């Protein structure tokens, strides 16, 4: 069974519409929608925005359903000039950019007491996503790289530059690494699939609403294709 988490209604609404044999379960103030997506057993859930909602949702998903992997879908801000609005980013790994225990000698983003600096996405899921994307989104560029997550909508050149300098991120969003973190603690494979809605700079607040729908369309098409391959 496949677990699919999006932060906002818009990111999961189309997936829910496409599901058959739907059953709803409520937990942690969230609605878990179980059914078949493109022939595969799946649970789709809206977590809400930010790391705490995402972490709570992921643990509830794992506790209530026998999911064999967790996929986080949605939109993100690009951190690289070569990654354009509408493109897809598949995570190689993810980290929490607002974790700061530097005063105690840790690196920026490093979580005290944890063995890993970033959470590594599952290779098999990455391969399936890449192949699936080339089939269903042939005109869209697919990139692979680090996703940097924080409780912040990034919309300034300064913050964008800071994220690139410190973490070499590909894109930024507000849930992915929290989902990855919980999946890691539960030893469940994960992947973050994000479509780019803005450039995470001074134009981000204007670009975001304009391109949100298009970006979501691309990620929904890919997630549906992936479900059929899993
Ligand atoms: N999600 C989409 N664009 C984003 C941005 N610029 N910062 C954080 N999360 C985002």
| Outline type | globular
Computed over alpha carbons, the radius of gyration is 16 Å
Main sheet overview: 5 strands, mixed, barrel
Output the strand order for the largest sheet: 5-9-8-6-10
Low-pLDDT segments: none
Helical percentage = 25-40%
Briefly say what this structure is:
The chain is of the alpha/beta class. It contains 6 helices and 10 strands, in the order E-H-E-E-E-H-E-E-E-H-E-H-E-H-E-H.
What does this structure look like?
The chain is α/β, with parallel strands linked by helices. Helix content is about 35%, strand content about 30%. It contains 6 helices and 10 strands; from the N terminus they run βαβββαβββαβαβαβα. It has helices at about 10-20, 50-65, 125-135, 155-165, 175-185, 205-230, and strands spanning about 1-5, 20-25, 30-35, 40-45, 70-80, 90-95, 120, 140-150, 170-175, 190-200. Strands 5-9-8-6-10 form a 5-stranded mixed beta barrel. A hairpin with a 2-residue loop joins strand 2 and strand 3 (about 30-35). Helix 1 (about 10-20) runs parallel beside helix 6 (about 205-230), helix 2 packs parallel to helix 5 and helix 3 crosses helix 6. The protein is globular and about 50 Å long. The relative contact order is 0.23. Adenine (ADE) binds near residues 76, 77, 200, 204 and 208.
């Amino acid at each position: 069974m496949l677990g699919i988490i999006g932060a906002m209604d818009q990111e999961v609404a189309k997936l829910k519409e496409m599901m058959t044999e739907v059953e709803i379960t409520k937990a942690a103030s969230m609605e878990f929608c179980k059914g078949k997506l493109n022939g595969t057993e799946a649970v789709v859930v809206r977590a809400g925005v930010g790391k705490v909602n995402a972490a709570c949702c992921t643990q509830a998903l794992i506790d209530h359903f026998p999911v064999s992997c967790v996929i986080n879908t949605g939109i993100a801000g690009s951190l690289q000039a070569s990654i354009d609005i509408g493109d897809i980013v598949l995570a190689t790994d993810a980290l929490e950019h607002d974790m700061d225990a530097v005063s105690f000698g840790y690196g920026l983003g490093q979580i005290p007491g944890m063995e890993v600096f970033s959470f590594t996405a599952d290779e098999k899921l990455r391969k399936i996503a890449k192949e699936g994307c080339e089939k269903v989104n042939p005109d869209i560029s697919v990139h692979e790289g680090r996703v940097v997550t924080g409780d912040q909508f990034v919309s300034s050149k300064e913050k964008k530059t800071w994220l690139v300098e410190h973490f070499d991120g590909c894109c930024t969003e507000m849930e992915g690494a929290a989902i990855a973190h919980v999946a890691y603690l539960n030893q469940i494979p994960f992947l973050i699939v994000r479509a780019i809605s803005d450039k995470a700079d001074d134009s981000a607040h204007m670009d975001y609403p304009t391109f949100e729908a298009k970006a979501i369309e691309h990620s929904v098409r890919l997630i549906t294709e992936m479900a059929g391959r899993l």
